Amino acid sequence: MMKKCVASLIAILLVFTLQAPFSIIASAESDSTIEDYQWLDGPRDVVLDNKASLKLVEGLTFLDAANTQRFMEDTESFPNGTEIGSIYGAGENSNWYVIFEYNDPGHIDDSDKDNLDAEELLDSYKRGTEEQNERTTPDNQLFITGWDIEPTYDSSKHHLLYSIGLKDAQQEALVNYNVNVLTREGYIGVILVTDSANFEENRRLFEDSVLSNLTVTAGNKYEEFDASIDKKSELGLTSLILGGAGVAVAKKVGLLLLLKKGWFVIVALVVGAFGWLRNKLTRRKKNDGEHPTDEISPSPAEQAYQQHAAGQESIEHTHSSTADHSENDPNKR
Description:
Structural class: alpha+beta
Region (Disordered): 285-333
Number of strands: 13
Number of helices: 9
Organism: Paenibacillus amylolyticus
Strand order of the largest sheet: 1-4-5-6-11-10-9-8
InterPro entries: DUF2167_membr
Strand content: 25-35%
Radius of gyration: 21 Å
Distance between the termini: 62 Å
Signal peptide: 1-28
Transmembrane segments: 255-277
Shape: globular
Largest sheet: 8 strands, antiparallel
Helix content: 25-40%
């Protein structure tokens, strides 16, 4: 099952534009093989970093936090360190996968649950992408098309879910479906990665086979929050939709592209695997004596993500420099 799952995953990561047989992946130069990862096949119970448990159904396979991050590193998919697990499918479940992340900014107040203004939030996303587009070439630009699913909060489960629709400069549709499961001192981000054509079908599969089988462990439940001892976050539900931790930084260093926990998660995964395979195939061409002009240049999506990553590093550096300056300013002592 492991080989089928990884072959299916690579197909998804290539956004269904490259049908690469598993034999090509397996023969590409790499320090890791499929057997190097500790795959757990369903049915079984698995634990997500002691924050939640999951009943893994038959037909799905699981990687824990360490293996998920290592797998992403090996495919140059830029893990952010918050990943606590991932699920991959085979057979009829092969055209989607799920990444789990855990963030602990503190207990998140859900008092704005009845004030989630979908239109205003969409405008905020559009402004962010428009500003980013001004910094990139036309081929690298991305465009918000609207909500696939408007922001919704389930008070009984403490689930915040939404899906934003986008298109790239080549008019290819992308899907980003997020479910934030609020916990005692943070939230579990559950991210469904799929293609647009199969989104509705895969959303149902995801909700039936994954989300309904996910349980926050005792001691970490949202309702177990104790204000006298637990950390409390300044973030609300609106902040999570606009980018989570990015909002806290924005208060200090100005306007950010508030999509760090949004569609760039998807782009990072897709571009990472595509870039990895591209590099391996290019290297093989060179070794076979083909002309250097056969080397494939980075795609617009790859360039866009690389620019975004560089921008994030610049923002973090600016934030760090601002904080250092503030600490050294004698007028603030």
